[in-house]
Amino acid sequence: MGLLGKAVMLLSFDVAPEAIVEHDDWHTHEHIPERLTIPGFMRGSRWIAEQGQPRYVVIYEVEGLDILASAAYLERLNNPTAWTTKMMVHYRGMTRGFCTVTDSFGLGLGQTALLIHFKPEPGKEKVVLKWLREEALPMLPSKAGLASVYLFEAALTPQITNEQRIRGKDAAVDCALLVTGYGGESVTKLMQTELHKNQFESRGAVGVSSGVYRMAYSLAEGELPALNSSLKRSAAGLPPSPA
């Protein structure tokens, strides 16, 4: 399986144009590493739009949904760093979902991804999800240019925290589909063919939006073992490891 863990936090947002350069610096050198010191956070990745909006998609892969309601995670959200506090005011149109990874097909993560948000109409959930699981998705990873497919379903309502109070109210996620590949044209073509908006709407989905993204940065928990060990012990109230 390409994604680590059984759940994800899925974020999509814009940043004020004048803050983009500093945002990417902060997000790379402080924010993602900080999040990965929280027990249960396994990998974070930032993606940039090549087609569609908003500009950014961020995916945090976690061991399970309970990690996103843990005391350690909430403590970070309610006590943002000075740099985080500065950057939060530049966020625009944040959509934030705590989702289980309910289906996956293929292996690995391609550097180009198609992200589709959608919401089944009441009573149509089984129709659209069955179509995806049994017809539309299983064969996609075997096609040239494609690698993997992941279906996300929201399963937990995020709590209001100090970070959200700074940036403003977040919109919710209902369902989302992530298709990754190594061929940009193959990934993009899906929006006009197998995963066209009309395919979702004809089966009872509403609020369908899509965009193509390229991976800009990715960091896994195990890539910062010394830093993670030190900060995790501190967060747990333990003394530093002996030198």
Describe the structure.
The protein is α+β, with helices and mostly antiparallel strands and 243 residues long. The protein has helices at 20-35, 71-78, 82-88, 125-136, 162-167, 184-189, 197-201, 225-235; strands spanning 7-15, 41-51, 56-62, 91-106, 112-120, 146-156, 175-181, 205-220. It has eight helices and eight strands; from the N terminus they run βαββααββαβαβααβα. The longest helix is centred in the first third of the chain and has 16 residues, at 20-35. The protein has an eight-stranded antiparallel barrel with strand order 1-3-2-8-5-7-6-4. It is 29% helix and 35% strand. The termini are far apart. A hairpin with a 4-residue loop joins β2 (41-51) and β3 (56-62). The protein has one domain (7-235): Alpha-Beta Plaits (2-Layer Sandwich). It is globular, with a radius of gyration of 18 Å.
Per the CATH scheme, the topology name is Alpha-Beta Plaits
Helix content: 25-40%
Taking the sheet with the most strands, its summary is: 8 strands, antiparallel, barrel
The counted number of beta strands is 8
Number of helices: 8
Q: What is the end-to-end distance?
A: 37 Å
Give the averaged pLDDT, no decimals.
Answer: 92
Name the shape in a single word.
globular
Strand content: 35-45%
Radius of gyration: 18 Å
**In the CATH hierarchy, what is the architecture at level 2?**
2-Layer Sandwich
Element-by-element helix/strand order = EHEEHHEEHEHEHHEH
Report the structural category: alpha+beta
- What is the total domain count? 1
CATH class: Alpha Beta
Q: Poorly predicted ranges (pLDDT <50, ≥5 residues)?
A: 232-243
Main sheet: which strands, in order across? 1-3-2-8-5-7-6-4
